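Cross-check.
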Amino acid sequence: MDKKTCAYLCSGCGIGEALDMEALAEVVTGEMSMDCKSGDYLCGEAGRAMILKDIEDEGVNTIVIGACSPRVMEQEFNFGEDKITVRANLREQVVWSEVKPAEGEEPHAEAAEFLQETAADYMRMACTRAKKTKLPEPFTLEEINKKILVMGGGIAGLTAAKEAAAAGYEVTVVEKSDSLGGMALNWRKSFPTKAPWTALEDNPVADLIAAVEGDSRISIKTGTEVARIAGAPGAFRVSMKAAGTRTEWDAPFKVTSEERDLIDKGEMEDPNVGFKNYMDEDKAAEMHGAVVLATGWKPADVSEYEHLGYGTLKNVVTNAEFEELAKQGTVPANVAFIQSPGGAKSDNDFPYCNSVTSMVALKQAQYVCEDNPDGRAYVLYQHMRTPGSMELYYKNVQDTDNIFLTKASVTKVEQNGDKLTVSADDTLLGENLNLDVDMVVLAAGMVPTTKDAATVNLAYRQGPAFADLDLFGGYADSHFICFPYETRRTGIYTCGGVRKAETIEETIDDATGAALKAIQCLESTDRGVSVHPRSGDMTYPDFFMQRCTQCKRCTEECPFGALDDDAKGTPLPNNTRCRRCGTCMGSCPERIIGFSDYNIDLIGSMIKAVEVPEDDDDRLRILVFACENDAYPALDMAGMKRLGINHMVRFIPVRCLGSVNMAWIRDALSAGMDGAMLLGCTYGDNYQCHFVKGSEIANKRMDNIGDTLSTLGLESERCATEQVAITDYDKIPRIINDFVDEIVEMGPNPFKGF
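Predicted model, tokenized:
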């Protein structure tokens, strides 16, 4: 692309009143050698018409906009995918972020100059970025498969298949049992789904099975399991096998570098003996474009609670077993439903209990009264959860004759002739209970199938299972806040009990959402753009393999398993798996990875474009790399609130802190910058990072560079990382300004001017 560049300066929204626009234009035309024009409101009809005229008449194809934040007016400044557009944030992060003097104080004598210098630096960086940016070209597969694989034939899987087929897509349903329906086959009734929220409804599973079996777009494979899933979105290679069997195409276990060394030394047995290498291609595999994981759940093990008698007393059953009994016929006349294990001083629920298990107890208590005119049901709980409209259902059950509910701590269940005696303390009645019943039902929780097995069975370098299952109790991590359905593996979406505990109604909604995400994945992949969270991004990482040292950092640090490697350790990108976070770029010590509009050289050049004055304590320069997902929007909001940020700071938005290569920090300090900060998302167990591991990885890298600075005689405190949320706009100015104060106290960078 032969570039024809032009910069446009907007004087609206107070920008022209605060800045010398002619001087700013001179920076663009003089220092940056770029044409420059001005307008009152570039987002308005006249401003946009001026730019479009230059595009049409002058052939301008690379546009720099000095105006408001790139997070606003996106459509107004969108001139087509064949144009490069770069935005300089002169409004929110310059004019609106100016530190105002306290009441009764005079402004700094050079305040106007400070503001002008800040604006000039942002224009320098924007012009540099425009010059260094290449027009991205989408990555497209030679051949894309748009068939959707649904793993699991229960309510969730059947619904996902039905909805995807209704949208015109071919679907394969794989179910390991010999029939469709899953756990729902054993359910007698389902919860109310409409007002007045009191009457149980028919189980919809039979109708769902009929709809799926009658749809010509849906292929059904019962008695079948997925042995492995290789490849990437648009081209997944799915190897299948008879349920319960072992084949050479089973997904191999992950083997770390340390374990591989032990295996090679004969000190450890290879767990993958008999399995094909994860990079081997199964010629018999079936091609699919996206996967919906709907493998459901299983009841939690309650046998550890010996005082409750499960496994030793005949008529102590789980809620799942009781439901099956109710489906087959009548239920006993007197039943105690125990929601919590109780015991000494314990108010915990059974593992994996939730609102669904609470409502199941209410439903099954109704069965007792429906089947037995004189029946009695006792619901003993520590916590009763009935969210939303289900509260009306709860109240209706409370008002039902012969159903008794009380908070209680169950101390023991004993055989008493042909009865069972349930003893409980600490009841709402203020007295201990001894109930003689025919059956005891324990509220076994809903454990996702991913907890104890790989389940998805990926042939990926990072192993067959989803990452960090232990962090979420075995549930597939999907970043519940921002990205429901999406897993750490692009193109694979979860729904139903494998994602979270749900009612049938919730599962149907959930499965519909997962099917739509799978379709979005297919269509985005077909267009050659990123699926999520940078939806529509046409860039993808480019590797200069000639300089690769096979260090494996990129393959190990990629949060999404987008990179495989060959026997030598050379990275093998799978671009349709990629989320475009740039973590691989940040990890590479050789700096061989980059994107057309975001790479080491581009950001490094922007850093060097910042003017660094020498030996002026009022003109120190601190660089802040701000995550564009949370930190950068929070900075914009701080500007909107007119919360002042020190004039010495320059912000560079980054895709994720994981993409920050430590070369940028070195470049900044070498250029005379006096400090550098990474401003990103919370990491750890309650992580908020859109790219899961970016902030955590960046923090570790900064620890290392702190050590390096110390060896060079620079204070390690000149570099810092801070965690913020998008809602922390009111805290961010204090965080940044306090850091500036620390740098000021240290004094200028001693390498300034070298």
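Residues 489 and 560 are 5 Å apart (CA to CA). The longest strand covers residues 224-232. Passed to J.P. for a second look.
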